[in-house]
Design goal:
This protein is mainly alpha-helical and about 160 residues long. It contains 7 helices and no strands. The longest helix has about 35 residues.
């Protein structure tokens, strides 16, 4: 029994990964904002601190981080799957390698959560450092991803 994916699905599926990952990038920037609000809450005192605590930035950051981890892994796997389905191979280049690195770094960052919950400053510092690197790589991925999409569109014309 052979299952052939319709050509229209092959063609248009190539655009799901870039659109999805742009959403993930936007959510990542929002997670950064929440992280900054957590730091502000830690540094605040008195009424300002009470007001910031009401924002539950720590809970929202933690929950969004969990969602982002799932989205990052499935987005990377989805991008590789669509590339393989359409080309019969993966293109081992900067976009693929940086994407795999991002998934690995993001996983390490998430794994630090139990240590941060126990108040370990080294874990918090490492988490912040890794995520800033991830965000920088992710922004670069957006640029290279647009270049890849442009090549796909050129081939379609």
């Amino acid at each position: 029994m052979s299952f052939e994916i319709p050509e229209s699905v092959k063609v248009w599926s190539q655009f799901f990964h870039p659109i999805f990952m742009w959403v993930v990038l936007a959510l990542s920037v929002y997670a950064l904002y929440l992280g900054i609000k957590i730091q502000q809450t830690r540094a605040a005192e008195g009424e300002a601190k009470k007001e910031l605590i009401k924002g539950r930035f720590n809970v929202r950051h933690y929950q969004l981080g969990s969602i982002l981890l799932a989205f990052m892994v499935t987005g990377a796997l989805g991008g590789m799957a669509v590339t393989y389905i359409n080309n019969g191979k993966l293109f081992v280049g900067p976009h693929l390698l940086a994407g795999l690195g991002i998934v690995g770094l993001f996983s390490i960052s998430a794994a630090l959560s139990p240590f941060m919950q126990k108040g370990k400053d080294w874990a918090r510092f490492t988490h912040i450092t890794i995520n800033l690197i991830v965000l920088g790589l992710f922004a670069w991925q957006a640029v290279t991803g647009v270049q890849i999409v442009q090549r796909i569109i050129e081939k379609m014309a």
